[in-house]
UniProtKB/TrEMBL annotation:
TM regions (residue ranges): 6-31, 52-72
Highest taxon of the lineage: Bacteria
Entry keyword set: Membrane, Transmembrane, Transmembrane helix
Name of the molecule in the record: Secreted protein
Length: 73
């Protein structure tokens, strides 16, 4: 049995990068929602923060759905 260490390292690197990107997107979404709540409490409009947060959550959902698609198909 021969292990292809280059391929294993490549899979590890891509998995790590995708995980960090997904966590960063979700974190930006949570930050956007917290800024939206703060803006509403101060009496301002928070449409941009809410839209950005929802866009981040949509990208997270799309990435997860694509991962499931890759596993199933």
């Amino acid at each position: 049995m021969k292990i292809d260490w280059a391929a294993l390292g490549s899979v590890f690197g891509v998995s790590l990068g995708a995980t960090v990107a997904l966590v960063a997107l979700f974190t930006l979404g949570v930050i956007g929602l917290s800024k939206q709540e703060r803006a509403v409490a101060q009496g301002g409009s928070a449409a941009l923060a809410r839209t950005g947060a929802y866009a981040c959550f949509a990208l997270c959902l799309a990435a997860v759905a694509y991962g499931i698609y890759l596993i199933v198909a």
